[in-house]
Amino acid sequence: MRSVQNSFLLVVLLGCQVFRPISNEAFPPEYEKFSWSLYASCRMSPNTQLTPGSPKIYGQVLFKQSGPEGKLRVTFRLHGFPASESQSRAIHIHEYGDLSQGCTSTGGHYNPQGVNHPQHPGDFGNFVPRNGKIRQEVDSQASLFGGLSVLGRAVVIHEKEDDLGRGGDAGSLLHGNAGARLACCVIGISSSQLWDKTHH
Questions:
Q1: 117 a catalytic residue
Q2: Which residue among 109, 162, 163, 175 is the active-site one?
Q3: Known catalytic residue: 79?
Q4: Second label for 152, Cα 20 to 30 Å away, from 14, 49, 99, 143?
Q5: For residue 162, is it within any domain?
Q6: In angstroms, what is the C-alpha Rg of the chain?
Q7: 94 is a catalytic site residue
Q8: Is 166 a residue of the active site?
Q9: What is the mean pLDDT of residues 107-115?
Q10: How far apart are CA 10 and CA 48, in angstroms?
């Protein structure tokens, strides 16, 4: 009888742990501080190795994810594109938050599962600037949580349109033939202030 009671008590205790919010060493302290959400930001700057005549892109990329199972929301607030053009630009997450050689040292696309482009978690796709600006919000398959978190990695804006893996060559399946890197930034954990300010 005592064994049955102990087993029942164990099940109840485990059940309580499953359904209450998780706040332990597995998550940054900001997770609890900001009501079970994580926020991140990325301050965009032009590539230090730009070719002459390339646009100089500035702005911010903001991230919010409500729990490890929640969708990652990404907001782009970018400017510096030629106002007279409507050239589609690709934006991706790259594997390294290393700007020591400009955007070149950010490595290839962040591709933890080793799959073909455009199935990488940070393949945001193409964006068409309006009046020299990109103001857009998307859902992403990437995450701010766990071992596959994109915190500390880089966001890169490319000069061309992403062919979305339909280019028929090896480059298409690696990076969408999106061309040179115009600007980049490193994703870092942040408070909720930037997100709230942008969305109010």
A1: yes
A2: 109
A3: no
A4: 49
A5: yes
A6: 20
A7: yes
A8: no
A9: 94
A10: 58
